[in-house]
Design brief:
heterotrimer, A mainly alpha, B alpha+beta, C mainly alpha, B: alpha+beta, Immunoglobulin-like, 2 domains, five-stranded mixed sheet, 43% helix, C: Cytochrome C Oxidase, Chain A, two-stranded antiparallel sheet, globular
Chain lengths: 129, 284, 566
């Protein structure tokens, strides 16, 4: 976890330095803003990992652990679910609506809503078994 | 399982290989150094402008570098591919790190890059410098043609697609080109001047041509600008200063004024309607 | 010696705990599966179909350019052709193949995870990718034709005045969908690699491919939102009356280029790094040595990622509106980590036992072709040289050297991991034929284009009747392109021919990383057992405990001494 934090923080730092060099020397704001955003995107998760890496013991995957130490429940992995497909099709209809006609928003949003409700419900059950 | 011992021949392999590579490289390098300024063109134009020629020399030296580095790397590749092809199923020595070597091939490329960057900046400053001059030409790109106006003079040249308008300019003089576009982005590209620049709507891009040879040079739009992009041609005609002045003066006659006026109106009409020249290349 | 080996243990995470997974089959399985292997296979098939479509368009382009004044297609059709060729290859083939197809399949296996961190999000990524691809291709069937402003969609050519019609809107819509697909894949890969590694699999024991995918995932998260934002702005300009990229309303056209390339240059590395990773996994296996300079390789990848966000404007040197030296030095510096990678690959083969399987041949072809593309890229990093090669065939040749090298890397990956994915070997003889057609075709295809660019042939022109002498070189380039087409046909024949012919077994290549420790194809939730992980080659260490990797200065003698002491 510590290395993850370090990588992200270093990337953020590098973008920050580039931003500091670029902004005053160029007459262009777009790139500077985007580089500033890139810096934040490095610092935000990097800071999170750094915070937790100081408060956690190294996980089995961060040290010379044996496989037994990692045994146990890792998480629920739903084996099959129709809702990603429905959500994807809903998003597709929404995008097609901006080209082929606004009426496509109706089936689009209906599918998205169905997928959100169904998917959330499925998660609460802990995945389809 | 027993590890296969490395034979003495194997151990000597890398060093000998390096020596062999050095010998192979020595000849072309010596040839290049001895020939001095008569480097091959590596496919590029020698350029008919002074700044274009410094670009050309930069190109030559970059090419020498690329061929030396690329050749060296390819020789190494060929060497390992032939020398270390499978001969037995024994497991080779499992070397994973050689820090001095790794540092070497990090430092050397950095030094090369610094060298390339310094030479780039020197040439770049020559190419992008705009020394003061009083010969100025305004270039306006539109779909799909060019309009050349000469501030302070009546001269206007305009033409679309294969009509290929001709921009006249004097030789051995710095000429400021002020480039802009009235619709989409175009590319003002004169291959034999080793130069191109975007024509951006709303931006005046100013750069300098300093032609050293007279003649007519072909130019073409290089940035995709729509249907007739392939045919958005022009010519640059480099003439002596006296010929250039005579040419400018020819627009002061009544006939010249009328021609310039007609050209102006034609552009306005055509740019607003987007009508293109009649040619064999039907739209859809 | 025995302490090097842990007895393999039953792995965590399989809450079913049975050999067989009972689930739906057929179409329902394909629609509902959240298994990363099924999704990875769907991605692979879809993106290879896109490669074939994009390649077919390329052949039409090359056929048009054989003669100076060809009327095979009209000017308008030509603009649509190269736009769709570029868009399909970059957005719908290279990216999804790189970070969707093989990564999806291989990354969880390489780190010993039962699945991706968010299986349903993973499935959503695929459906967004598929629907986005269809959306973009639908443009061909609309009245005004497909998008025709180049794959870069430069404003103001791409606005509603200059390019009216549904084709352009479908292009934007398709990119929005595939863009979100990429972002979700980036989230998923990052979370998987950060949280689902097997015990003992520290970051510096991950195979280079997984490392590169982690870096790619981070780059996706940094770059793709910018493209999505840009596309929404472009759409707003087209339909909602904003003037972000049009001068008449106070907008700045160059802003689109800044936004596009701020995504577009990291995208180049998003495309390239996965293939670097594939090759970095394949070369050690077929040299029977560890990756030379493993840590240097990781740092080189991270350096490329960091630098890649600071080089976007080298695509814009000729706009006259960018800071030339800054972008020049940044772009030149990227050559350094790339060079380190190439030397590391050579170092891996040095002293090894090089086995010329198809995967290895493709990898070597990749390295050589990429070297050529990289060296010509150095020219383009120098503004004065870029001024006269920009938007000519020199640039086209440069990035085709690069991307066709990536295709070779991808083919290497398919020959290498194909047996793991399907359980059956691909035919090696046909593979070698494919390699030679592809490799020779590529060089024959790119070299004339470099020369054409230097002679002043701009890109994206359908006719060149003012200088018919270019026809000769164009003919050679077209022959090369047709050879690449033949190689693709050989690949398709090989896939059909090899189907269910020679079973692969668990570890046909005597390979290094964890995916070769399970069955081919792997069971549901991937592993029944895992070996002890103490290096980036756990499976090699398990199979060859006596041949572990040596550190600098270490020699075999020392190991023998140590063994005596033990």
């Amino acid at each position: 976890m510590r290395i993850e934090a370090r990588i992200l923080l270093l990337l953020g730092l590098f973008f920050g330095i580039m931003c500091a060099v670029y902004w005053p020397t160029s007459n262009e704001d777009g790139g500077s803003v985007m580089m500033f955003g890139a810096m934040l995107l490095g610092f935000l998760p990097g800071g999170y990992y750094y915070y937790w890496s100081r408060r956690m013991k190294p996980r089995p995957e961060d040290r010379d652990a044996t496989q037994e130490e990692g045994s146990g429940f890792v998480g629920a992995f739903p084996s099959t679910s129709i809702f990603p497909f429905l959500l994807g099709m809903g998003a597709w209809f929404v995008v097609l609506a901006i080209v082929f006609g606004i009426w496509l928003l109706i089936p689009g949003f209906a599918l998205v809503l169905w997928a959100f409700i169904g998917g959330t419900h499925e998660s609460r059950r802990g995945g389809q078994r | 399982m027993e590890l296969t011992p490395q034979s003495p021949r194997d151990a000597a392999g890398p060093k000998r290989a390096l020596r062999r590579v050095r010998n192979l490289l020595a000849l072309p390098i010596a040839a290049i150094v001895l020939s001095g300024c008569t480097l091959p063109s590596f496919g590029a134009f020698k350029s008919d402008t002074k700044t274009g020629q410094s670009t050309y020399h930069l190109w030559q030296w970059f090419s020498v570098g690329a061929i030396v580095i690329g050749g060296f790397t390819l020789l190494l590749m060929a060497y390992v591919m032939i020398r270390y092809r499978r001969r037995s199923d024994s497991i080779p020595k499992q070397t994973q790190y050689h820090l001095p070597l790794e540092i070497t091939y990090t430092i050397i490329p950095i030094l090369i890059v610094i060298g390339l960057f310094v030479s780039t900046v020197v040439v770049e400053n020559k190419v992008t410098a705009n020394p003061p001059t009083n010969v100025k030409i305004d270039v306006n790109a539109f779909q799909w043609g060019w309009k050349f106006t000469y501030p302070g003079y009546n001269a206007v040249v305009v033409g679309q697609t294969t009509q290929a308008p001709t921009m006249e300019m004097p030789v051995n003089t710095n000429v400021h080109i002020s480039l802009t576009s009235s619709d989409v982005i175009h590319g003002f590209y004169v291959p034999k001047f080793n130069f191109s620049r975007y024509a951006l709507p709303g931006v005046d891009n100013i750069f300098t041509f300093d032609a050293i040879n007279t003649g007519t040079f072909f130019g073409q739009c290089s940035q995709l600008c729509g249907l007739y992009h392939s045919l958005m041609w022009f010519h640059v005609k480099v003439v002596t200063m006296s010929q250039y002045k005579a040419w400018l003066a020819s627009f002061n006659t009544p006939a010249g004024i009328a021609a310039a006026k007609a050209a102006n109106e034609a552009t306005n009409q055509q740019t607003s309607t987007g009508v293109a020249t009649k040619n064999a290349y039907g739209g859809s | 010696m025995t302490d090097l080996l842990d007895p393999p243990v039953v792995v965590h995470g399989d809450d079913h705990g049975h050999d067989e997974h009972h689930g739906p089959t057929g179409l329902v399985k394909w629609l509902t599966s959240t298994d990363h292997k099924v999704i990875g296979l769907s991605y692979t098939i879809t993106s290879v179909v896109m490669l074939v479509i994009g390649g077919a368009l390329a052949e039409v382009i090359r056929a048009q350019l054989i003669s100076p004044n060809n009327h095979l297609v009209s000017l308008a059709q030509y603009n649509e052709l190269f736009t769709m060729h570029g868009s399909i290859m970059i957005y719908l083939f290279a990216g999804p193949f790189a970070f969707g197809a093989l990564a999806n399949f291989v990354v969880p296996l390489q780190i010993g995870a039962p699945d991706m961190a968010f299986p349903r999000l993973n499935a959503l990524s695929y459906w967004l990718y598929l629907s986005g691809s269809i959306t973009m291709l639908l443009g061909v069937f609309t009245a005004g034709g497909a998008a025709n402003f180049g794959w870069v969609g430069y404003a103001p050519l791409s606005n509603a005045v200059n390019t009216p019609g549904a084709g352009a809107d479908l292009w934007i819509g398709g990119l929005l969908l595939t863009g979100f697909s990429a972002i979700f894949t980036g989230v998923n890969l990052t979370a998987t690699i950060f949280y689902l590694r097997a015990p003992g699999m520290t970051l510096f024991r991950m195979p280079i491919f997984t490392w590169n995918m982690l870096v790619v995932a981070i780059l996706i998260l940094l770059a793709f939102p910018v493209l999505t934002a840009g596309l929404i702005m472009l759409y707003a300009d087209r339909h909602f009356g904003t003037h972000i990229f049009t001068v008449s309303g106070g907008g700045v056209p160059v802003l689109w280029q800044n936004i596009f390339w701020f995504w577009g240059h990291p995208e180049v590395y998003i495309l390239a790094l996965p293939f670097f990773g594939m090759v970095s996994d394949i070369i050690p296996v077929f040299s029977r040595k560890p990756m030379f300079g493993y840590k240097g390789m990781v740092f080189a990848t991270l350096t490329i990622a960091a630098l890649s966000l600071g080089v976007w404007a080298h695509h814009m040197f000729t706009t006259g509106t960018v800071l030339l030296p800054f972008f020049s030095i940044m772009s030149l510096l990227i050559a350094v980590p790339t060079g380190i990678k190439i030397f590391n690959w050579i170092g891996t083969m040095w002293g090894g036992t090089v086995i010329y399987s198809t995967a290895m041949l493709m990898s070597i072809g990749f390295v050589i072709t990429f070297l050529i593309g990289g060296l010509t890229g150095i020219y383009l990093a120098s503004p004065p040289l870029d001024f006269f090669t920009h938007d000519t065939y020199f640039v086209v040749a440069h990035f085709h050297s690069v991307v066709v090298a990536l295709v070779m890397g991808g083919m290497a990956g398919l020959y290498y991991w194909g047996p793991k994915i399907t359980g059956y070997m691909l035919n090696e003889r046909l593979g070698r034929w494919q390699f030679w057609w592809l490799f020779i075709g590529t060089q024959l295809f790119t070299f004339p284009m470099y020369l054409l660019g230097l002679k002043g042939m701009p890109r994206r022109i359908a006719v060149y009747l003012h200088d018919p002498s270019w026809a000769n070189l164009n003919m050679w380039a077209s022959i090369g392109a047709f050879m690449i087409g033949v190689s693709t046909i050989i690949f398709v024949i090989n896939c059909v021919y090899s189907w269910k012919r020679v079973p692969a077994g668990d570890n046909p290549w005597d390979a290094n990383s964890l995916e070769w420790f399970t069955t081919s194809p792997p069971p549901h939730h991937n592993f029944y057992r895992l070996p002890k992980i103490r290096s980036e080659r756990p499976v090699w260490d398990y199979n060859h405990p006596e041949a572990r990797a040596l550190h600098h200065g270490e020699d075999h003698e020392e190991i023998h001494d140590m063994a005596k002491h033990v």
